[in-house]
Amino acid sequence: MEYAQILIETITGFLCLFVLTKVLGKTQITQITAFDFIAALVLGELVGNALYDKEVGISQVLYAVFLWGLLIYVTEWVTQKFKGSRALLEGRPSVIIYKGKLQYQNMKKGRLDINQLQHLLRSKEVFSLQDVEYAVLETDGTVSVLRKSLEQTPSRGDLNLTPQTVELARTLISDGEIVWDNLKEEGLDEGWLEKELQKQQFTSAKDVLYAEYKKGEALHVQPY
């Protein structure tokens, strides 16, 4: 009887969450804000605890899911009806690259480091910060990217030009620290890096937020 009860409660909880997701809309899945994340955790906890608590019946599971779903629905309605509440409940997008320059203070506010930013950019098929004119950290944790105008020109295939070898940009300095592995893999040393930094009026790697190197090009440096 106990196993049958767990089976019934599991199916009931699954159906409730499935219906609730359909009612609340696809944005609950594709655009997870901080509030949506908390809502998902609580809903899962409600159903999970109900499965293993013998004193909790199906009616109580349904009631708890209904109340929490109603709270989520009302919150979504408030954010749509009153624009001022959106920043509080959903947060605001922040510009992290402006006119090709990293906005360090905005990155700190968003708890975003260089490695995380590079990962997000690669998901947008951007492998070098030099290619980015603007980047915005969205409320769901993704990044929207506007490439520089030179990167938006027709491809070599469009112009019937001969393909050339593509070099991958290597991070040599991240958050003021030298990435030694990348430096060695490029066949470079600390002396070369210091000279390149001095050419751009930097006395030390500690003064640099980010620096990358691509064969055949000058060292690209971003200050704090």
Q: What structural keywords apply?
A:
16% strand; CRO Repressor; Membrane protein; membrane; YetF_N; alpha+beta; four-stranded antiparallel sheet
How would you summarize the topology of this molecule?
Layout: H1 2-24, H2 27-30, H3 34-52, H4 58-81, H5 84-90, E1 94-98, E2 101-102, H6 104-109, H7 114-122, E3 132-137, E4 143-147, E5 170-174, E6 177-178, H8 180-185, H9 190-199, E7 208-213, E8 220-223
Antiparallel strand pairs: 1-2, 1-3, 3-4, 5-6, 5-7, 7-8
Helix pairs in contact: 1-3, 1-4, 3-4, 4-5
Strand line-up across the major sheet: 2-1-3-4
Spell the H/E element sequence: HHHHHEEHHEEEEHHEE
Provide the residue-averaged pLDDT: 79
Helix content: 40-55%
Low-confidence stretches: 26-30
Structural class: alpha+beta
Beta-strand percentage range = 15-25%
Keywords: Cell membrane, Membrane, Transmembrane, Transmembrane helix
Organism: Pontibacillus marinus BH030004 = DSM 16465
Family: Belongs to the UPF0702 family.
Domain YetF-like N-terminal transmembrane: 3-78
Verbal overview:
- There is one protein chain.
- The chain has helices spanning 2-24, 27-30, 34-52, 58-81, 84-90, 104-109, 114-122, 180-185, 190-199; strands at residues 94-98, 101-102, 132-137, 143-147, 170-174, 177-178, 208-213, 220-223.
- It has 224 residues and is an alpha+beta fold.
- The protein has three domains: 2-88; 94-152, bsu07140 like domains (CRO Repressor, 2-Layer Sandwich); 170-223, 2-Layer Sandwich (CRO Repressor).
- The strands form two sheets. It has a four-stranded antiparallel beta sheet.
- Helix 1 (2-24) runs antiparallel to helix 3 (34-52), helix 3 runs antiparallel to helix 4 (58-81) and helix 4 packs across helix 5 (84-90).
- Residues 81-214 form the YetF C-terminal domain.
